[in-house]
Amino acid sequence: MVARRKVAVVGVALSDCGRVDDATPYALHAQAARRALADAGLDRSLVDGFASAGLGTLAPVEVAEYLGLRPTWVDSTSVGGSTWEVMAAHAADAIAAGHARVVLLAYGSTARADVRAGRRTGTLSFGTRGPLQFEVPYGHTLIAKYAMAARRHMIEYGTTIEQLAEVAVQARANAALNPEAMLRTPVTVDEVLAGPMIADPFTKLHCCVRSDGGAAVLLAAEEYVRDCRTSPVWVLGSGEHVSHAAMSEWADFTVSPAAVSGRLAFERAGVRPDEMDFAEIYDAFTYMTLVTLEDLGFCGKGEGGAFVEKGRLRVEGGELPVNTDGGGLSAQHPGMRGLFLLVEAVRQLRGAGGERQVRRRGDGSLPRLGVASGTGGWFCSSGTVVLGV
């Protein structure tokens, strides 16, 4: 039996992102993958594991073929936005057990360009089969499900719409420091509240941008770290959890599946939430950030509103910088955005954040611990990964 090995992220990259009208999703996968391999400095021949979801009839077989890979370990787990944290956990376990040596995670989407070109419409529903058949006929869209959960939190704990708007304001402040972000102009709480209503209580700026883009992450066994051109970022612990598909089966709209995945990840990493130097959190809507902060243990249940309204999420001066690149609310959101969280977390831990680089409070040193937590569906699933240097 092979002894369990330590696993590190050795390469990360984004493809061209934002407004990309002249590329296919396959091309964005390939562009991000090439850049991640170049970032790591590893030869493609070492990649014997591949994970991808969301593209092709036989994902990830078609994407692997497009990239010229013939992996002996593969994962196509698809649980929405949390897919990539779950896949990273699976990949780390496979590498640690000796089933793979180097695993590539890759994603690409032209969600924005497809809508503009008329190749697809806005995603109002995920389908009408299975348990969803009991909700879709009544117009219960994806956005409406998140909005209803947010309203429950407001009723239950007194969370205000101004507090939710603060999440968007602080995400935009972080995006202003990121030259790759789609939206960089600062906004105010009043401007968030004055926007067109999308799904009560969410106005437009409570919702993520629609963009094109891709990302790739390369994980490797510890013995390959010395051959890389980058400093390793170690996978310390992970957790995953699925909650519900039908809203009627969700026991409490104010508790996300991150309450379980986060607890498992921190326990397995042997660290506490208050030791994190930053957090990268899936933020298709402002409420996702607020409730995930609670469920990861950064504040108590029902205290998220008070926690975010004090500017704590900002890179500049914040106690817990969150979504340091601007997140899905301002940087980019090409669909299943969880892989972008891992890319940004690794960049921060390497000290490669540029103008948005997080510094530890007190001594101004580079961060040592960070967490990435992805959410899928309408709080249906969660994957959380703790990373460190």
TrEMBL record:
<dbReference type="InterPro" id="IPR055140">
    <property type="entry name" value="Thiolase_C_2"/>
</dbReference>
<dbReference type="Pfam" id="PF22691">
    <property type="entry name" value="Thiolase_C_1"/>
</dbReference>
<feature type="domain" description="Thiolase C-terminal">
    <location>
        <begin position="239"/>
        <end position="388"/>
    </location>
</feature>
<protein>
    <recommendedName>
        <fullName>Thiolase C-terminal domain-containing protein</fullName>
    </recommendedName>
</protein>
<dbReference type="InterPro" id="IPR016039">
    <property type="entry name" value="Thiolase-like"/>
</dbReference>
<dbReference type="InterPro" id="IPR002155">
    <property type="entry name" value="Thiolase"/>
</dbReference>
